[in-house]
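User: structure tokens for this one?
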Amino acid sequence: MADLYAKALDSERKALWATCRLKGLAKDTPERQRIAELDRLIAEHKAKKAG
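Assistant:
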């Protein structure tokens, strides 16, 4: 079964990262902060799934 939560987080992260790369946004922007938060959420989800 597909892990829809992980796919949604990854999809949002990829879209934000593309936007940041295209616009050349600095690390202190809300978009870059959201990417860092998504990285944390993805890591927590993987750890929970691994058991």
